[in-house]
Amino acid sequence: MVVRFVDRLSAVGLGAQEARSAPVMVWKAPEAGPCVALTANVHGDEITGLAAILELEPWLAANLGKGTVLLYPSVNPEGLAAFSRGVGANGGDLNRGFPGGGRSGAERWARAIWEDLERRRPEVLIDLHADSFDGVPYVILDRPIAVPAELRTSFEEEIAALGRATGLTVLHDYSDEEYRRFNLDRSLTGAAINRWRIPALTIEAGPRRALDGGAVSATVLSVQSVLSFLGLTQNPLVVHPSRAVGGPWERSTAVRTSTEGYFRPLHAAGGVLRAGEPLGEVLTLAGELLERIDSPYDGVVVSWTDRRWLKSGTSVGTFGFVMPD
Fold first, then answer.
1. Are residues 220 and 268 located together in one domain of the fold?
2. CATH number at residue 168
3. What is the Cα–Cα distance from 313 to 257, expressed in whole angstroms?
4. Is residue 128 situated within a structural domain?
5. Which terminal CB of the chain, N or C, has fewer other CB atoms within 10 Å?
6. Of the residues 194, 229, 264, which one is the last residue of a structural domain?
7. Is the pLDDT reported for residue 280 higher than 90?
8. What is the pLDDT of residues 160-186, one digit of tens each?
9. Higher pLDDT among residues 38 and 87, named by residue
10. Residues 272, 199 share a domain
């Protein structure tokens, strides 16, 4: 019989109200198996993951046959209440603060999350995020930059296999140099990979600051597929239609405008690109062409920017590219 109980995220050094607002739903199957942690709402205005976790629970009750699943519907309840990306209305980016520490509220809260996860010893971590109103669900594979060279290739292959199991388009994260520069090893998944050395995935689905039913469904299906791939289900492997588009791709947000104006995409999100093919145009308010932006490499559009009036130097979206060696 599957057992479910609600625990609380341990919050040493934090206020009681913060602790009360961060439940952890623990699902234990009758047979031993891997422990998988599913976290959501690291950014308080990204609510797809929260909804997906709540919708996943009935499925776990009927299908979990092995192991343990830890559900964290919101690891940023203060940001959720303020409808803010950071911790609270003016807090810092929680997803650049792991494993936490320091004096700021965001750093202390990151430490509380980290220590709570650490004591539960997950063997796999899946973190749920949201990207753009004009995008397709995709998964990001972090870089194991702190893993010894002789172990890195096999570890990357293990992470990539989990990514493929989602059925979503897979993006390998920025190059090692950019990954360090953007402090992505201090994201929750990046820290899990580089400090605990456990496989971790970031699923990006749906728009920020809004809830899209299709994105929630895609997220639930992707998580179900990963849990089935890991052998946690008592029923036959759940196989969902793949939404993946080609690859392997490397994540990039480096395509930027050189003028200011109205940005008009020329491709639907999810569409495959060829190097030199027009991506979009920048127009004046009178519709006059200021700039045409071409794709620098073969690739795929996974999301366009939420904004349509862009200043010079603004990224137009997120892409997966085939980068040159």
1. no
2. 3.40.630.10
3. 5
4. yes
5. C
6. 229
7. yes
8. 999 999 999 999 999 999 999 999 999
9. 38
10. no
Same domain, 152 and 196: yes
Give the range of the structural domain holding residue 303, as residue numbers without chain letter.
249-321
How would residue 9 be classed by pLDDT, with cut points 50, 70 and 90? Answer: confident
CA 179 – CA 62 distance, rounded (Å): 39
Q: How far apart are CA 319 and CA 254, in angstroms?
A: 9
Q: Which residues in the chain belong to E strands, given as ranges?
A: 3-8, 23-28, 31-40, 66-72, 124-131, 138-141, 169-172, 200-207, 249-252, 261-265, 272-273, 278-283, 289-294, 299-304, 309-310, 317-321
H or E element that contains 56 = helix 48-63
In this predicted structure, the answer to whether residue 31 has a pLDDT above a threshold of 90 is: yes
**Looking at residue 296, which CATH number applies to its domain?**
2.40.50.100
Q: Is residue 127 part of a domain?
A: yes
Residue among 263, 304, 319, 306 nearest 45 (CA)? 306
**What are the start-end ranges of the E strands in 106-164?**
124-131, 138-141
Which residues have C-beta within 8 Å of that of residue 151, sequence separation ≥ 6?
none
Domain assignment present for 78: yes
Query: 208 with 109, same domain?
Result: yes
Residue, of 14 and 254, whose pLDDT is higher: 254
Single-letter amino acid, residue 320: G
Residue range 260-273, pLDDT digits in tens: 999 999 999 999 99
pTM metric for this prediction:
0.95
Asked whether the beta carbons of 36 and 230 are under 8 A apart, the reply is yes
Contact 66, 13 (CB under 8 A): no
Q: What is the identity of the amino acid at 188? A: L
The Cα 160–Cα 177 span in angstroms is 20
Name 35's bridge partners.
68
Per the domain annotation, does 24 fall within a domain? Answer: yes
- Answer yes or no: do 288 and 175 share one domain: no
Structure tokens at 123: 């063997």
Higher pLDDT, 92 or 23: 23
Query: pLDDT tens digits for 60-106?
Result: 999 999 999 999 999 999 899 889 999 876 678 999 999 998 777 78
